[in-house]
Structures are given as C-alpha cells and as structure tokens.
Amino acid sequence: MDEDDVVRYLLKREEQIMERLCAFLRIPSVSTDPAFAEGMRKAQSFLLVWLESMGLRDVQLLDGSGHPAVYGAWEGAPGKPTILIYGHYDVMPPDPVEAWVSPAFEPTIRSGRLYARGASDVKGSTAIALETIEGFLKVRGACPVNIKVFLEGEEESGSASLRTIVDRFRPLLQADAMISADGGRASADIPTINVGCRGLVELEVSVKTAAKDLHSGRYGGAVRNAAHEMARIIATLHDERGAIAVPDLVAAVPELTSDAREQTARFPFDDGEFVREVGGLAHGEPGYSVREQLTLRPALDINGMWSGYIGTGSKTIIPNVAHAKLSLRTVPEQSIEHAVAALKAHLQSVTPQGVDLTIDDPGTGAEAFSLPSGHPLVICARKVLREATGKDPVLVRLGASVPITVIFEELLDVQTLMFGFNLPDEDVHAPNEFFHVASLAQGLSAWPRLLTALGEFDSGSFRQDERLQG
Amino acid sequence: MDEDDVVRYLLKREEQIMERLCAFLRIPSVSTDPAFAEGMRKAQSFLLVWLESMGLRDVQLLDGSGHPAVYGAWEGAPGKPTILIYGHYDVMPPDPVEAWVSPAFEPTIRSGRLYARGASDVKGSTAIALETIEGFLKVRGACPVNIKVFLEGEEESGSASLRTIVDRFRPLLQADAMISADGGRASADIPTINVGCRGLVELEVSVKTAAKDLHSGRYGGAVRNAAHEMARIIATLHDERGAIAVPDLVAAVPELTSDAREQTARFPFDDGEFVREVGGLAHGEPGYSVREQLTLRPALDINGMWSGYIGTGSKTIIPNVAHAKLSLRTVPEQSIEHAVAALKAHLQSVTPQGVDLTIDDPGTGAEAFSLPSGHPLVICARKVLREATGKDPVLVRLGASVPITVIFEELLDVQTLMFGFNLPDEDVHAPNEFFHVASLAQGLSAWPRLLTALGEFDSGSFRQDERLQG
Asked: A single Gene Ontology molecular function, please (chains A, B) (predicted)?
C-alpha cells in the first residue's frame, strides 16, 4: 500500500476541504473572553459531529472545568504505534476589530491568502490533520497508526485546565508519541523540523497609589500618579538596548552552546530584513543574532498596559490604579519557577513606598521544550520532508511556546513533533491573520506520508530511541 | 430694600429647588464623548426653557461650531453694573461606571450628600446662580444689577469653541465683571475668596514601533515594544521625588514671592491629613508645602495611558502603538506656549531612533489667572462672606483651572470672581461625585447678598479700581 492514494483523494477534494475549513473559521471560538462562550460551544459541536462522522470512536468532550477538549480515537492497528494528534479549536480575540480589511470571522480569500482569525493559528493546520485521518478511513478503511485526536479549547488562554484534563483522562490518552498541528513552519522554501520551543509564563501587574481617581487640578503636584509609577516600574525591566535588566533572572539563563549556535546559523535568515519587514529597527540583547534572540534567549514583553481615562476626549484625572499584562518567554534549562520568583522580587524592589503592588500569577506557565534529534518523530519528519523537497531539513526551534508539549511529556511520557503548516508571516494574534492557501495542499500531501512513515515503527521503539537519545 | 426678602423666598423654596436640580442632574450632558450628544441637547432645552420662563430676554444658544453656550439677559437696571453669570451645563464622563454606588445620572441623597455626576462640578452651583436671579425677578420684579447668563457646554472638554463663541458674540456679552459658579470653596469652615487659578494645557502623546502588533513568541527579544518605549518616556517626566524633570519647563517657572507664600500659609491646611484622606503618601516637589505644590507650582500628570491588549484574559502580543493623555497645570507668569514647546522638545529628545513619536496638540490651553485683590468683586465677596460667617475671608488660589477667566479677560476685558459653593472633598471627575446638601442653602443665602453688594457700585468703578490695583 502506498500513501499516495490518500494524498490523491485529498488533493481532489481540496475545494470541499477549503469549504469545510471556512465553516470552521466562521465560528468565533475565542476562549479568552466570556462574551464568546456561544462560539466555543458551536466549535465543540462542529468538531464532535466531524469526528463522529469520519468514523472515530469514543468521541466526547474531555472536561477539566474550563473549556473542554474534543476527543476521538481510531484504534484498528494493533502492534502499530498510537499517535496523539493535537490541535486547538480556540482562537485569539479579533481586537482591534476596526483594523481588519475583511471581518475576522468571515473567511475571505485575497491573493492566495485565506484571511480569518484562526486561519493560521491553528484551524488551518488542525483541519489538515483531521482531513488526513478522514482520508485514510475513507480510502482504505484504516490508518497506518492508531490515532487519538485531542483538540484543546484553551490554548490561547494559557491552557488553564489542560493539565487537569490530561491528568483526569490519562488512561484514555495513553500513546507513544504526539504530532501537533500547532507550531508551524519556519520558512516556505527551506524544510525545517521544529525540535523545541521557548516556555511561556504570564503575569498581570497592578499598582495602586490612592483610594480613588483624583482631579488633577485639585491634587496635581502633591500625590502619586499610578500611571507614572507603572511607567517607572516597566522602564526598569530592560536596559536601553532592549536586554532584560532583571539581574537574578538573567543570571540563571544558560550560555548558548556552540552546537546550538551552529544549528541556528544553518537556517538562512536575514536579520535586517526581518526587522524591516515589520517596520522596525534592530533592537534587543547585544551579542546575539536575531534568530538567537528569538529562539535561544528569553524575552520579556508587556502585552498590554492601561491606566486612567482612555476614552474619547479628555478627563483630567490622576489615575489611582494602573495595570500591565506581562509575558516571559523562557529557554531550555531556565526554570520558570525561578524566573517568576526573580521577576516578582525585582518588581517589589523597584516599587516605592506608598505604592501598592499586586501581582496576579495564574500559575499556568509552561517550561521550554526540546525533542531529541534521534527520536522516530524526527526521523520520520526528516524522511517525509526530504522526499517532498529534495532538501535535508534544518532542525529549528520555535520562539513561540507550545505549553502542551511539556504537559504531555510530564503526564503521559510522550514526545511531540510540531508539524503545523502555518508560516511566520501570517499575522498570528494580529489583525488580518491569514493562512497561505498553497499550504493547504502541501499539508495534505505531507501528513499522510508522515503517518505512513510512523506506521513502519512498532510501538516499543519510541520509548527505546528516546532513552538512547536522552 | 433688603436682599433678605429674596433669601427668605429661596430658602422657603429649597425643596422645589432641590427637585429642579435633580431634574438637571438626570440629564447625561457629557461633552467629551459623542455618544452623549442627546444628553447635551436635552440639557440645552432644559436651560432655554428655564431662562425664558424666569423672564430673561434674548434667550438663545450661542454657537461656536462645538457644543453651544446657553444665553439669556436681564437689563432693567440702567447705570448699574452689568454682571456676566458663568456656569457650565456639561459634565465629565461617568467612567468607571461600575464604581458608582448609585448610578451617575440618578441623583441620590445619602447622609447629607447629593450623589450624581455634575452635582459638584458644576450643576449644583450653576443652579444656585439661576435660582438667585429667578428669586429677585419673582420677589421684586428686578435684579440689583444687570444680568447676562452664559452657560458653557464644553468646560469639561477643554472649552474648544469658547473663544470662538465669545469673539463672535462680543457685543452681546459686554459686561463690567463676571461671577462664575465654577471654582468652589476651599473649605466648609473658613470663608475664602478665589483670586486665581492654575492654567491648563492637554496633549496626547503616541509612539509607534512597528507596522502592526507582533506575536510575542515570534518576535519577542528582537524588536521594540511600544509599551516599553512609552513607559521609558513617561518615566523621564518626573524625578523619583515627584518633581517635574523637564529642565527647560521648570527653569521658566517663577520663584514664589514671600507674599504668595504668606497668603497661602494663612489658610489652615494639614498636609499629612490631605494625602492620608485620599489613601496616599506625601509625594511631589521638595521644598514646598502641599498647598504651595497644589496652587503655586506646576503639575504634570498622565491622565490616561494605554497600549496593547487590555481586555479579559491574555493576548501575547508585542504592541506596536502606545498612547498617553497628558495634562500640564501652569502657574502665573509661566507661559503655556513656552511650557508646551519645552515639553515637546523634551519628549522628542528622550525618544530613541526607531520609535515614531506623535504629539497631538489641540491648542486649547488656558493660562493661569489672577484677580487683583482691590477689585470690587473681591471687596463685595469679602463683605458678604464676613457678614455671613463673622470671619475675614482668606484669599486663596485654585489648583484647578478655569480657562474661561482668561478668555473673558482677553476678549471682553472683564475680571472673574469664582463664587461656586462646591467643596474639595466632593470627588469631582471621579466615581460617586457628590454635592453637600447643606451647601445649597449657604449658596442661596450668599448669592443674593453678593448681587446686592455689587449693585452699590456703578458701572464705571469696575475698570477704574482694576487699574488702580494693576
């Protein structure tokens, strides 16, 4: 049996596949904002019906007291490895909505790009995975490996209940390895395999300087202003070159190995072009290339800050509170627990007397992750990509974070291959997010081949190889 | 004729007067936000009907292409001075609405306080002025002076079209002096006369660091973050003690005269209590008392700042823009034009290459103002307050700004006495704004006596005395 029958079947159906993807994208499944609860429920129904109709068993919602995950399995290949297929059906909020050329939840194709919130992150690649499984079952009545589909509903809101779900449904989720539709390609031209990602932890910081907002005429000049205090605190987080200036945090970041630097340098990358493309100038920790800054070094960013009157017109108040949402991207061998403790101690130390500092820590951080290069997942991905492109894939790391990898490794002892087909230019998390239409066919060709290659291993070889590679 | 017949009439009607004030307060006349346009129109109608029904002539809206002013006149006292009566019918936005104990536009009396947006600033005192005029006309069919009522609709949004209106209707508005219902009392116990106020100018500052919001995983560590840049800029505006740190601006502020310091010290004021009352700690320019900081020294405040994602949950973006609303309170002999130029130059100088700085200057600043202490307005106010309280009033200055004073002085050559009855603890511009119910009767007793005292001067003496006092 050759996997090409399935690939041919899928490519012939590309138009219907695009239609179903658009139906998926029309559902406003924003997990971070309770106003979109109805959209979340609609996305769950959409997926339950799809998994059931393609012939998966045990189709159900896995509840962890947040947004549930959608689950379904096909276990008709005894002796073959069992592969968890990960995707997520939730998307980022569409804000700022007025910046979208076509509405965020009305998928629109322009110039070879499918515009919609979630098109790139990650409904497009999730659809490729599901269509692949359906293709095998339709064409052959069987998949080359056992399949357990796990579609998360809280990836964009910090995977708050993921650990609870995986722990609660541990027996159901037993598998040999995981392929994730999240964590896309680094380049459209150069084949790459993601072998790791940065960690992520988020905090919300608030300062309070008075019991209430005060009139700036009546109090201006004699009381603290919460916006000033927040600005002074934020200004201490980086030096003027853009390097993180939280000493205890920085001290615990390991120096780069020469191997890591060499691997990173193999990926062709134009530092100047990268920053010019987004309309910026080079900025960040000196002594590191942009790729190193993005994938091998930590990043600390204010994701949002607000204080006082931000409506139309003016309101001459002295704000009594100010807030900032903060995220820290960590690297391997950097402990999130230590980094957060260092960050909190720094924030306390720079907050003057008379200012109340509150740090809201949801405790949902995910450590950075690394996949050993000799793991069957990497071997198979290498084979598939080499055959498809004629080039030896470059092993790359992601700057973004896929918290699921750590949770699944820890609770189920499975390693994850990120095999999403999204690309870096697709304005993920921003207005006018899109998915390159050409990526759909590329994904529908590669996924069947990957599952076929994995089917040539037996279940036992996964853990053995992993141990060998440490 | 004694003014006590009018005072008696007004105090007997206090209940009806409170009812009419509540009707006025129920109208959401927020001038800064276009969403309240209907409330602005309702407030205009309410006032037009009131002025017409009490017997004023020439009742009309004075248009300057923004929110119009409401006007009406009584000119039945030939040879007597003509007094402009100033108030404003617009109010601040009610935000944050959730912080109000009773809704902002449902006036509610609790423990001797009338809670409503605008109760203190300045519908309460405006109502006192109008009820006084109506009282004279009802009881005697005449006022002791000629009256021109001018009720502004844009005081809370920087008086954008006030200059245009006053200039356009200059002949109609000719007067000898002005009494303002805005600019309240400094204390409930100690009689005071406001003889000046700080100036006010507002700017909106924006920075842009990239063409769009960027994913913090894909870009974090290698690009500028607009929130960081705004924080660094704001942090340069003050030193750690709270003193303004814009050298060219500070250098142009005149040193305090010993006379100014003595006058300020006459007003009993507990510095520690003042900051404790608002839940803060002492903060601000060293070497000055709190009263001096508030009334004789400039203040620079961020009134609002915002950047990135500020909704529920999280969104891991690197914001590409950040905004801040900024206000500067100036003191006499400090030129706004110079201060704004110094501030702009400073902002430019601290903005690094790679960051686009935009400063939106609506050009609606108002200089600080001073009323000469020998002016008939001060003489009359002193007499009325001494008789009412048995104490010699203290001459005080306001920390807040009443831009109208400068505009009327410049265009109509009239001086302004601020004779509002609001008090400093009334949470102006904040949630749960209120007006002390007891102030209503105090105002209704004082205003008729003030108009009677002014009626003892003739028209010519205003300008003469002014010249004598310089």
From this structure: metal ion binding
